[in-house]
Amino acid sequence: MSEFPNDGAFASLPLTPELLANLDSLGYRAMTPVQARSLPLILAGRDVIAQAKTGSGKTAAFGLGLLSRLVVTHFRVQTLVLCPTRELADQVAGEIRRLARTLANVKVLTLCGGAPLGPQLASLAHGAHIVVGTPGRVEEHLRKGTLDLSSLETLVLDEADRMLGMGFQAAMEAIVAETPVDRQTLLFSATFSDEIRRIAGGLMRDPAEVAVVEAHDETTIRQRLYRVADESERFSVLCRLLLQYQPRSSVVFCNTRRETQEVADALCEVGFSALALHGDLEQRDRDRILVLFANHSVSILVATDVAARGLDIEALDAVFNYQIARDLEVHIHRIGRTGRAGSSGMACTLVTERESYRLERLVEFLGEPLEEAPLPPRDVLAQVPFKPDMATLQLDGGKKQKVRPGDILGALTGDGGIAGDQVGKIKVLERSAYVAVQREVAKAALAQLGTGKLKGRSFRARRISR
């Protein structure tokens, strides 16, 4: 089955009626390029190595493939999906659950570092069909003998290039050694580097290659180059750009952890809403920062490239390259985080005279010059920095206390409460929950949670965003 469906419709694929009905209810009509090119091969049982970035629809591509192969009556681990980060693993598991909701009793389990081991051991003891996890934690369970992959049918390596870049190669090889040799292997990567091809050669059997490289044009991403007089001016220029364009949601990329924290702190000092994301953070702090950024309680995320890998950041208005990335391929990944799904985005790169050589290399790598733009006027600095739309409240109850998003929404909008359209994203974790509300009603929402009850009991609530 090497030919692709002509009309690009999911109905043209040999999927079960249950899966097709669910796709229709989810609004999935036409396939994305990576789905149209890889799904027929996956459904035919081929090993596939696919070049596709986050946001291309790759999760549904391999998700539909593994669900088509699943035998629900055989209660054993039939699929393992490895992801570079806990955040991506959670997103992938959530998408697979959505795709599987019309199938009876499909159990999807996440196994990630940064989460307690005990609950994972209990979940594994009860069994699962599909495991989604990070290499380090999956390898740990294999060492402890708490995870059995002897019945594995499908192995998926999602964002394999990032797993390699984060040092997971040894763990990945140890995991693969515990899987049957006749499994189907699907490898998804944003790049087709020599290292990826070498890894694929050792893991896969005659893999079919699918490359979907979506170029960003001026209609989706506007790339601009801003020349900075000297290093002392760099931060001032960043502030001027933020004040001129006022993006609702933006990421500032720095090359070092130290600079990431320094820039975030400096932005806060002059009145912006910014948080730093880097490798020195504890997992709980990282989770909190990502919740605040995703629900628009923080406008600016200042991040290193490694910390930002694997994050599916939606509706990003702008990316600011505080410096040119050391790895030129990383520059492509950075700007690719904005202008997704047909929306427009902006990528601004700051360059000093000392970085001229790196700029020449970048232009050569891109194959086209970057458009130089004039710096915003200095008087823009007299403006008051913009504030985020939302504020976040944290409750000290979560899934362990049987708290659901609907319970929180009901408590906020109950007698004398705020309007439902003033409530934003709600994220319920194991022992806590986060809810975003419009900034102007944060005080009233906090009071409402403080006086009301969830599940017949009171929970402490506090505001955690500035």
TrEMBL record:
Residues passing through the membrane, by range: none
Motif placement: Q motif: 8-36
UniProt GO molecular function: ATP binding; hydrolase activity; nucleic acid binding; RNA helicase activity
Domain DEAD-box RNA helicase Q: residue ranges: 8-36
Any single Pfam family the record assigns to this protein: DbpA
Keywords from the UniProt entry: ATP-binding, Helicase, Hydrolase, Nucleotide-binding
Keyword ATP-binding: yes
SMART domains associated with the record: DEXDc, HELICc
Protein name in the entry: ATP-dependent RNA helicase DbpA
Organism listed in the record: Billgrantia pellis
